[in-house]
Amino acid sequence: MIELLIEEASRRADAADVVMKTDETLTVAFDSGRLKSTSSAQECGFNLRVVHGGRLGFAGSTGQDPIALLDAAFASARLGPQVAIKLPTPAPLPTVRTHSPRAATLSAVDLIQLGRGIVDRLSIDGVKVNLVVERSIGSVRLANSCGVEGSYDVSTVSLSAELVQVRGDSVLITGDHVAAAESPTLAEVEAMVQRLLQRIAWAERDATPPRSGNLPVCFTPAGSAVLLLPLQQACSGKAVLQGISPLGDEANGPRFSSNFTLVDDPLADGRSGSRPMDDEGVPSQRLPLIEQGVVRNFIYDLETAARAGTQPTGHGRRSTFAKPQPAYSNLVVEPGHHAFKELLALIEDGLLVDDLLGVGQGNVIGGAFSQPVGLAYRVVKGEVVGRVKDAAVAGNAYELLGRVAGLGTEAQWIGSMAVPPLLIEGVAVLGA
Question: What's the structural domain count of the chain?
Answer without folding.
Answer: 2
